[in-house]
Amino acid sequence: MDTSPTVILIVAAVAVALVAMLVATVVLFVKVFRTRALLREAGVPLSNRAAYWGALIYVVSPVDLLPDPVYLDDIGVLLLALRSLHAASAGAAAHVQDRERNRERKGSRTRSTRPRSLGSP
């Protein structure tokens, strides 16, 4: 069997490409799970989270509305999902601010001192 340097170089290049793809897959997998946790902690409604995950599944799925060399449908779906998340995050931020204001009001009521009478020191 003839093992020329060209064959060894090709096999090495394929092995390096496979390792790089594996590393990229693991990194993306970790980022997806962190995103999942961040969306839950941010209080984003389930419908908006579902739009995000649906867009992500659509982008990686082999079934497309347009052929894969044209990524306009993928980009459009991702933009709609990101717009939905942006709107939900603005609503969640307003909700958090309202909740903090209510806590401050309740806290100021409980810390108030009883009124002094005019004759007492």
Folded structure, characterized:
The protein has 121 residues and is an all-alpha fold. 77% of the residues lie in helices and 0% in strands. It contains 3 helices and no strands. The radius of gyration is 28 Å and the shape is elongated.
Please describe the structure with a list of short key phrases separated by commas or semicolons.
single chain, 121 residues, mainly alpha, 3 helices, 77% helix, elongated
Provide the fold topology.
Elements lengths: L4 H38 L3 H15 L11 H40 L10
Helix pairs in contact: 2-3
Q: Assign an overall shape.
A: elongated
State the helicity in percent bands. Answer: over 70%
Structural class: mainly alpha
Number of E strands: 0
Through-space gap between termini: 107 Å
What value does the average pLDDT take?
77
Q: Which residues form runs of ≥5 with pLDDT under 50? A: none
Rg to the nearest angstrom? 28 Å
Number of H- or I-type helical stretches: 3
Proportion in β-strands: under 5%
Topology order in helix (H) and strand (E) letters: HHH
Largest sheet: none
What would you say about this model in short?
The protein has 121 residues and is mostly helical.
